[in-house]
Design a protein that fits this description.
By secondary structure, the chain is mostly helical. It is about 70% helix and about 0% strand.
């Protein structure tokens, strides 16, 4: 028996299923729900886009969410430990997901900092009417010209200072742990986010021209359904929207109690996320309808997504609308809350992985993870070249990081390790919504086909022309070089020995879980339990 000084730290847990659901929704509902989905739906055929969107949700999003839940809850570990317990050779998949979260965390924080500053700017209309574009790029970010792209050391204080505040707040939440920190933060922020966005939507609906915006958003273009790109866009959006393959849902589900309804929880999270996206589409396009009327153009002339929607189009709306400051505070405040709940879930993947690998305590691990990430974030994204680095890293880590690891994971688990029957059994032991042959077909056949298509088309697009017009060396470092490095480092981390106090070496809670659920352990070593062939065939 381990002594008191060497005993493995007890694994944390969410206080209840409701806290887990709110936390999972908080992770899923992020910046993309607010500034990406409305435009993707509009471009994909308006109301007609709901057909491929629902198909993607039911055939890919929800099945992959169940897939992550089953792995995390069955093997009760962070992404690397869960995949290792499934099979030793699968551990690099977990570290690949962890490293993707490292990249996302360092740039996600700065977008939250921007939104925080624009919440303050909205109250005062700091940018001035008609100056929204120049204010964002020139006055606020002080962005370098594309031709001068590099890695600048020119500090931008109006970005750097709020970025420090964001990291301090997030580190504080993380240090408090899963129950007192992440759980409580989501219990507070998610209801606030919902109320704020509901008020924003109602206010937007009463703006002049709002009906024109809603007509543009919902009017169906049935011809778009014949375009394969529209279906690919729907599947791609659902995939990123639900936070699958990041390691987030694997990690979060490992904190659930043993007898939790997994599939029922997954359905609540998936449909709540989609409901928020549709609500965001209504609010955003009602506001864009007002903007189009004010500028004497149609909605197509003002519709945009991403940074352009958030930091250029919406400030324009704020400047022109009656009570615009309130709209701005609600919109950018919602971005801050959505960003913080997503960022803490991203960081938790990294913190949990190191805790499991090394057996360190919560506060020590949080500081060792978060402080270096905060320093890197400050060095890259509080300078005049921040936007170019962010744009490139985000495009490549999404297209060739998350998409690639998801493809490899479903192929390895389904076709090489043959674990889908055992994962199906685990889901059905404790869930209100049973899964069976159809779920295994969706994960083992449809998911690889869709992910493979999206990955190949993205690869062709990026190879055909230099991304964003940036220099080749810049794309090579922050694009291609970054995604290749993630894979190499993942294998190197897998080769490192697990610490003496790690959960892989000594985890009595997991042993109790196996015994209580009558799961067999690895016949070769009890320290790394895996499914046996008998269980796999069950």
């Amino acid at each position: 028996m381990a002594t008191a000084t060497t005993q493995t730290p007890r694994r944390e847990a969410f206080g209840s299923r409701n806290v887990f659901i709110l936390s999972a929704i908080g992770s899923a509902v992020g910046l993309g729900n607010i500034w990406r989905f409305p435009y993707v739906a509009y471009e994909g055929g308006g109301g007609a886009f709901l057909i491929p969107y629902l198909c993607a949700l039911l055939t890919a999003g929800i099945p992959l969410l169940f897939f992550d839940y089953a792995i995390g809850h069955r093997f009760r570990g962070s992404a690397p430990l869960a995949f290792r317990r499934m099979h030793r050779a699968a551990e690099p998949l977990g570290w690949w997901q962890v490293l993707i979260c490292v990249v996302i965390a360092v740039y996600y924080a700065v977008i939250i900092a921007w939104a925080g500053m624009y919440t303050w700017f909205s109250a005062q209309l700091t940018w001035g009417p008609g100056n929204e574009n120049d204010f964002f790029f020139t006055d606020f970010l002080r962005s370098a010209d594309v031709a001068e792209v590099g890695v600048s050391t020119d500090f931008v204080p109006q970005v750097g200072i709020p970025l420090v505040v964001v990291w301090l707040v997030v580190i504080g939440i993380m240090a408090l742990g899963v129950k007192r920190g992440i759980g409580r933060a989501n219990m507070i922020l998610m209801p606030l986010l919902t109320v704020m966005f509901a008020i924003l939507v109602v206010q937007s609906l009463f703006l002049p021209g709002a009906v024109d915006g809603l007509n543009a958003f919902f009017a169906p273009n049935w011809e778009a359904l014949a375009d394969p790109a529209v279906w690919a866009s729907a599947y791609g959006h659902i995939f990123f929207s639900l936070s699958v393959a990041f390691g987030i849902m694997v990690t979060y589900s490992s904190y659930l109690k043993r007898k939790t309804d997994l599939t029922g929880s997954g359905l609540v999270v998936a449909f709540a996320n989609s409901g928020f996206e549709i609500l965001a589409g209504i609010g955003v396009f009602a506001a864009l309808g007002f903007m189009a009327q004010a500028q004497g153009t149609d909605v197509a002339g003002v519709a945009t997504s991403g940074i352009g929607l958030a930091f250029i189009a919406f400030p324009t709306i704020v400047s022109q609308a009656a009570g615009g400051s309130i709209i701005g505070v609600l919109f950018f405040g919602a971005l801050v809350f959505a960003g913080v709940t997503s960022l803490i879930s991203i960081l938790e993947v990294i913190v949990a992985a190191l805790q499991d690998k090394l057996g360190w305590g919560r506060i020590r691990t949080t500081l060792i993870v978060s402080i270096p990430l905060a320093v890197i974030s400050m060095a890259l994204f509080s300078t005049t070249t921040a936007l170019s680095v962010l744009d490139t890293a985000d495009a490549f880590v999404n297209a060739f990081g998350i998409m690639a690891v998801a493809l490899v994971a479903v192929i390895v688990v389904a076709w090489f390790l043959h674990k889908l029957p055992a994962l199906t059994e685990h889901l059905n032991r404790r869930s209100s919504f049973p899964v069976g042959r159809l779920w295994k077909i969706l994960i083992g056949v449809l998911a690889p086909l869709v992910l493979g298509y999206l990955l190949i088309t993205g690869l062709i697009e990026k190879i055909s022309e230099p991304y964003g017009g940036y220099p080749s060396w810049f794309v090579g470092v922050f694009g291609w070089g970054m995604v290749i490095a993630l894979v190499i480092i993942a294998f190197l981390l897998s080769a490192l020995p697990w610490g003496g106090r790690s959960h892989a070496k000594d985890d009595p809670e997991y042993d109790d879980f196996l015994e209580e659920e009558s799961y067999p352990a690895d016949p070769e070593t009890a320290s790394v339990p895996v499914f046996t062939e008998k269980e796999t065939r069950a």
